[in-house]
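Late entry, evening session. Most of the bench is empty. Finally got around to the prediction I had been postponing all week. Sequence below, unchanged from the version circulated by S.P.
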Amino acid sequence: MATSTPTENLVPATPSRKSTPLRCFIGALISASLAIALYSLTASITHAFAAQPLPRGSVATANIAVAVRTLVVGMSTLGTTIFAISTLGLLALGIQLVILNLRSGAKLDESA
C-alpha cells in the first residue's frame, strides 16, 4: 500500500494553465471593475461619516466613534488599493507577455 506525503495532498488535481496576455487582460478588467466599485463604496462611506457629527456625550464615546470610522474607511481603502495594485500588476504582466511573444516570433522568423 502506497502512503502519501503531506506535500502530495497539496498539489492540485487539475493541470495548471499557462498565462496568456488575454487571460491577464481579462483578469485586469475584472480587478479594475472591483477597484472602481470599492472606490465608490469608500467615497460614499466617507461622505456618510462626514455628514454625521461625532457624539458629544463623553470623551470615551468620541474616541470610540473616531476609531470605528478610521477602521471602516481604512479597511475599505485597503481593499480598493489591493485591487488597484493587482490591476496594474496584471496589466504589466500582460504587456510583458505580449513583448516576449513578439520577440520570440521575430527570432523564429529570422532563423527560418
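Two things to note before I forget:
The chain has two helices and no strands.
The helical segments are 21-51, 59-111.
Will write this up properly tomorrow.
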